[in-house]
Every structure is written in C-alpha cells, then in structure tokens.
Amino acid sequence: MKTKKRFGIVKKLFLVLLVIILAVVGAVYATWHHEIATALSFRKIIDRNDDHQDGSVYRMDVSGGFYFEEFLAEGGAKSDSELIGFITGKLTKGLIDMGMSAPEIGCSSFTATAEDGDRLFGRNYDFSKTNTAIVYTNPGNGRHASYSTVDLQFLGMDENSDVTELMDIITCLAAPYAPLDGINDAGVACGIYMTYQGGDAVTATHQNTDKPDLTSTTMLRLILDYADSAQEAVELIQQYDFHDSANTSFHYMVADSTGRSAILEWVPAEGVTDANDTDGAARTLNVIWNDVDPLSGATDWQYITNFIITPGYYAAGDWQPGLDRYEHLGKRLAEINGHLADDEAAMSLLAEVGRRTWNNDDGNGCTVHSAVYNLTDKTMLWVANEHYGEESHTIRLSFE
Description:
Elements: H1 2-41, E1 43-46, E2 57-62, H2 68-73, H3 80-91, E3 106-114, E4 119-127, E5 132-137, E6 146-151, H4 166-171, E7 181-184, E8 189-194, E9 213-215, H5 216-226, H6 230-237, E10 241-243, E11 250-255, E12 261-267, E13 284-289, E14 302-304, H7 323-335, E15 339-340, H8 343-352, E16 366-374, E17 379-384, E18 394-398
Helix pairs in contact: 5-6
C-alpha cells in the first residue's frame, strides 16, 4: 500500500511539473513566437573568404510585424540610443541589450530602362569586409513585403567571424530596422548613401520641429513598408523629422516601376556651403526628381554616389566625395540614353564603379554587395563582394 501511495504522489508531482513546464513553454511561445520563428530562419547562404575580404552572407525571413507600427505610433526615434531602447524593449522584452552603429561607407546607384521596358535600380554598397544578411519581411496589415540588405556590423557583429552564437542571432532580430537598400512588392526600391557633410568634421542632420522622428535606416524601412510609389515615398518622408545615425550624414534615392525617381538631400539654406554646413538642425529636405539630368540635360534616369547634387553646395576647392564615380555613371548613362540590355547589363555597369576596379578615393576596401532591383518584375539580382558572373555568389529572388 505504501509503495502504491508513493507512486501516486510521484505521479501527481510529475503531472504538476509537466503542467508547469507546458505553461512556461506556452508563455514563452505566446510572448516570443514571432521572434523564435525569425531566429530559426537565420541561415548562412554564402561562405566567408577572408583572403578576398568576403564576409558570410545570411538569409533571414522575418515573422510578424516586428513592432514597426508601434514604433511609428510612439513617435519614432531621434537617435540610435532611442531606437535601441525601443527594439530592446519590444524584441527581447528588455532582457537582452542590443547595439547599433554605422561605419563610413561609399556607395553608388543608378536607375535605367531595360530593352524590354523594365525599370531597373542598381546599387553598390562599398565598405570593407563584413557579414551581411538578406532580410525578407511580409508584415501584412496594409504593409508591403520587401527584400532588403543589412550590414551586420551595424548590429555589432564581428566582421572576422561567422554569426553562430545564440545571443548574436537574437541581436540580428533587429535587422529589419537597419536596411541599407531594398525593394518592396509594389516595385519601389530605395538606398541610403553617406554624404560626409560639414567640412572636415562631418555633421549629422538633426531636424527639430514638432513632427515625429525617424533615424536613417528606419526612414528606409518606412519607404519599404508603406510606399506604393516614389511620389508616396517622398510624401511619407515629408511627415517626419530626419535624424542621421551614428553622427554622420546621408542622402537617399528612391524609384518606382513607372520610371519616376528622386534623390533626397537634407541641405542648409542657399548660400551655406559644405565647409559651413555645421548646423544639423538648420537643414531642410530638398527633393531632386529625375526630370532633367544635371550633366546631359536628358530625362528618364538618375544616379547617385556620395556627392551632394544640390546646386551650389560645394565651394571651389572643396573635397567632393564620390564626384568621380558620379560623373562616370552620368557619362555612361548618357552614352546609352539610359537604356541597358537587361539586369545583367546593369550589374556590369555597377562593376565599372566597384572598389576593385575603381580608383579608391574614400578608403573603402571592397564592394560588399551589388544589387539590381527590377522594379517592373519585382525581382532582385544580388552579387556578393564583386564576384560578378559567379553563380556561387549570385542570388536571385522574387516575390512570387
């Protein structure tokens, strides 16, 4: 009888313990099921090669809305620290600290038209060896699906080792808040480019009105999630105060499947040149549409590097970062009247201004990735670190 009684007690204790475990697991799943699904999707798709300055390339499919609607509803963020605070509180419920930073980057982009009429958006991201992630989001609730590229060094990942530790993968859950370029399923593409504004000491833009606030990469996320066109992207951006991340300065290009594109620059009042552009709060948004090309006078294409194209911004003798690549892209597009054979031809033009073939005037050692976004077909042709023509380093994605 005693043995039978003890067995009954053990059985009850086991059942109680099982109920507790299931309750804990259920609570964890209910709280973090989207984050768990996202973390489980994180996988390496291209291996690193340190001899070629290749970091590893990862793919991550984001589950759920990653709290971006709440981020906007709460007024956004006017600094990296505010953004980190929001992400940490939402994604990890305050249990895990996260960090974000922004290195100095030099990049190039252009729009063009393929022979079949498809609209193309090309983008080089120039920096140095780093791990990257191609991030897919499909949050629903009126927001667009998108593909974007994230430099994982922005999230504190070591560029000299793979992302394998659980805590590092959890940190990468913040990747949707740090896109550098991307395309959404409406055929809108955009990219971010450093501008080095403010003379010798770069001055970040920090607008300070009564509008809600966005940092550099969260403004890109706003476009990818909500913009149906380039025009709508501009209208969305005009509703926010802009704050450059990491105490540096940026401008943008956005384009859509109709061939409409715009460059967005935050510049001071007329008469203030780069050397005196030291008040980040005094800058206002200048939108330059692809109506008239400043070099050829033609229309229907546009291009951007790190060079500010707002007329009169640079005084004689000023350092004009990216001007050489800007003029090269402008000349090449004028020669072909903004028309390229196809996505592969657009990738070849990106190769012309890649770090390994171009006179490197900005200290960046390689082109980390090159992307051609077909805005008509809503597809992406993506090449890692100037491995042009190598299938092992080429990724093709679509929304279908």
